[in-house]
Write a structure and sequence with these properties.
6 strands, His-Me finger endonuclease fold
C-alpha cells in the first residue's frame, strides 16, 4: 500500500489500489465536474445529429441535447399529434369507456356487465355499506367488493363478489385488510365514550 496525495484536496491517504489518485468519492466527483466544465467551455461549436451541421454551442438547448434548437423544435412538431387527432382519441375513449369498464369487471371478477348493473340496482344505486349515491374517487366509478381470501391471485370468481362499494368504503375495507377483528376494533374505537 502506497502513501498518496489527493489531486483535488491535497490530503494524504493510503491507497488500496495502485491507480487510485483521489482520497474519497467526493473528491473524484469534484474532479469529474471540473473536467466536464472545462470540456464544455472549450467546445464553442457542436455537431447536430439531425441536420448534420456544425453550429455554435449556444444554439443547443443544453450540453446534453444532440439536436440544435431548430431541429429539436421540428422533431417535437413532427411527433406531436394534431388537435384533431387528440380530439378523435378522446371521443373514442368516451364512446368505449362503458365497454372497457364492463370487460374489465368481467375479466377481474367473473361477472357480466348485466350482473354488475343488477347488483347495483339491488342496492338501489347506492353503496352497500354507507348507502351513499355518489361513488366518489378520482374516476367516479363504483368498486366491486370481493372476498380476497376465497380465490388466490389477481382474478376472482363470481362467488367471491360481495357487493358494490363507493371509493371511500372500498379503501376503508382495504386498509383494514378485510379482517373482521380489525373492523370490530375500529368500531369499538369510534363508538367509545370520550373520557
Amino acid at each position: 500500500m502506497a502513501d498518496r496525495t489527493c489531486t483535488v484536496c491535497d490530503a494524504r491517504f493510503e491507497a488500496q489500489q495502485p491507480n487510485k489518485i483521489y482520497c474519497s468519492p467526493k473528491c473524484k466527483n469534484t474532479a469529474g465536474a471540473r473536467l466536464r466544465r472545462v470540456r464544455n467551455a472549450s467546445r464553442t461549436h457542436r455537431n447536430c445529429y439531425r441536420c448534420a451541421q456544425t453550429k455554435p454551442a449556444a444554439e443547443f438547448i443544453s450540453p446534453w441535447h444532440t439536436y440544435c434548437g431548430d431541429c429539436h423544435k421540428a422533431y417535437n412538431r413532427d411527433w406531436e399529434p394534431s388537435a384533431a387527432s387528440r380530439a378523435r382519441r378522446r371521443q373514442r375513449k368516451r364512446e368505449n369507456e362503458p365497454y372497457d369498464r364492463g370487460t374489465r369487471v368481467q375479466y377481474l371478477y367473473g361477472i357480466s356487465p348485466e350482473k354488475y348493473a343488477g347488483l347495483l340496482a339491488a342496492q338501489d344505486g347506492r353503496c352497500a355499506i354507507c348507502r351513499d349515491a355518489d361513488p366518489g374517487g378520482r374516476w367516479n366509478t363504483w368498486h366491486v367488493d370481493h372476498d380476497h381470501g376465497h380465490c388466490s391471485g389477481k382474478r376472482a370468481c363470481e362467488t367471491c363478489v360481495r357487493g358494490i362499494l363507493c371509493n371511500r368504503c372500498n379503501l376503508a375495507l382495504g386498509y383494514l385488510r378485510d379482517d373482521p377483528v380489525l373492523i370490530a376494533a375500529a368500531l369499538r374505537y369510534v363508538t367509545r365514550e370520550t373520557e
